[in-house]
Write a structure and sequence with these properties.
heterodimer, A: 198 residues, alpha+beta, 2 domains, three-stranded antiparallel beta sheet, two-stranded antiparallel ribbon, 7 strands, 60% helix, B: 209 residues, mainly alpha, Butyryl-CoA Dehydrogenase, subunit A, domain 3, 7 helices, 12% strand
């Protein structure tokens, strides 16, 4: 099969890949194709795990902080609310976008495409939704937020009592499942499957 | 390059940005038959857009580093911290691994990202043919590391949310924080607009002569 490298435009003849193998551009070595095994099935399983973790991560507090009798808890959403009330609407909106909205969209859009593909069905505008998903990915920054929790933890531990909440662990696991989903799902395979059901 | 090397552009083909489908290129305003995305030979106005976003980022970079990103009020005293003084705080407390993480994410990444993108843009404009494989690698690094600069903005949000009235201290976001956030977003957009294939176009143009 013929494919143009997205980084140097070279036309590469890509052979059929073994399961788990990847093809690189012969000139600039960019990854052209990967062939992760059971792409749709694994992608769907991981996305469902992400959904569960996302709900837990955003329903509970990730840090409790203060002195006994005067503990303050925060979830990501209440943190954003505080930021908004503090007179930083721009920053609040940005953190809401990359920390809550985009990671959530990633899960919802993935499910919208992968679940029908798994069942061999067709739902309206799957192609448009999958395109949107490819653009959303770059703005979902769960892994950066997890490191942010870590840094804040060290910074505040010196000041008063600090207890990580259940949500902190959920965020850490969500970071893993989302990164795993990215490596488990090869967009080119999804495009091919979308063509098949259309 | 040997004669066997053929690019999609030379073959009159354009690859779709979103799904990679090769379509015979018939001029702009064409859409991909597979996914309906707009199809171009190269990203439109890549150099101009990338420069515009990058210059805007470079301008915001100054207040982002000079102004305070957090203001801590404690016992009637107010302390303003810039990005760099946040790094120094950890260093003085002997926590150098964390100082390194914050320095990398907040100082080294944005600065090197702006510098690397400027270099790539200038190299394309000068039609440089010098080490295209390595320059493509630089582009990949820029794409990969950009998001990590958002780290400090997450930390500020957590600190502001947790350290509030009712404590011996309270933390607020400083005037530099929105500028810092702007640098992160603008450099990410600038990297998205840059088209690495332009570097290779110069290499092929030289080989054809």
């Amino acid at each position: 099969m013929l494919a143009a490298c997205h980084e140097c435009d070279l036309l590469n003849q890509v052979p059929a890949l073994e399961s788990g193998a990847s093809a690189h551009c012969i000139r600039c070595h960019a990854v052209l194709y990967r062939n992760p095994p059971n792409c749709i099935e694994n992608g769907l399983a991981l996305t469902l795990s992400s959904l569960f973790l996302y709900i837990v991560a955003n329903s509970f507090a990730f840090l409790k902080f203060g002195t006994p009798g005067n503990m303050r808890t925060t979830s990501l959403v209440t943190g954003i609310e505080t930021m908004w009330q503090e007179g930083e609407p721009l920053l609040a909106a940005l953190i809401a976008t990359v920390g809550v909205i985009m990671p959530g969209l990633m899960i919802v859009l993935s499910l919208y495409v992968l679940l029908p593909l798994y069942l061999g069905r067709r739902v309206p505008d799957m192609i448009g939704v999958f395109r949107a998903l490819l653009h959303v990915r770059e703005w979902a920054m769960v892994e950066v937020f997890v490191v942010g929790i870590l840094v804040a933890y060290v910074k505040l531990a010196a000041m008063a009592d600090l207890v990580p909440g259940v949500s902190a662990y959920a965020f850490a696991l969500l970071m893993i499942t989302q990164a795993w989903t990215l490596s488990a799902v090869e967009p080119r395979i999804v495009w091919r499957r979308l063509k098949a059901v259309a | 390059m040997s004669a066997s090397i053929l690019t999609a552009k030379d073959a009159g083909l354009a690859a779709c940005h979103d799904c990679g489908t090769l379509v015979p290129f018939e001029g702009d305003h064409q859409h991909c038959p597979q996914c309906h995305a707009a199809v171009h030979l190269r990203r439109p106005d890549s150099i101009a857009r990338s420069w515009a976003l990058l210059i805007a980022a470079a301008i915001c970079y100054v207040p982002a580093n000079v102004l305070a990103v957090t203001i801590t009020d404690a016992l009637g005293k107010s302390q303003a911290d810039t990005i760099m003084s946040g790094v120094m705080y950890f260093l003085h407390h002997g926590d150098w691994p964390l100082a390194l993480v914050i320095f990398t994410a907040s100082v080294a990444v944005p600065m090197s990202k702006i510098a690397m993108l400027m270099y790539l843009l200038i190299s394309v404009q000068r039609r440089s043919v010098w080490r295209p494989v390595d320059r493509t690698r630089i582009y990949r690094i820029v794409e990969l590391i950009g998001r990590w600069s958002m780290l400090d903005m997450f930390v500020v949000t957590i600190l502001v949310a947790l350290v509030q009235l009712g404590f011996f201290a309270s933390i607020h976001a400083g005037p530099g924080a929105p500028y810092f956030a702007a640098v992160v977003v603008l450099t990410m957009l600038a990297a998205q607009q840059f088209d690495p294939r332009l570097m290779w176009d110069a290499v092929e143009a030289k080989d054809d002569r």
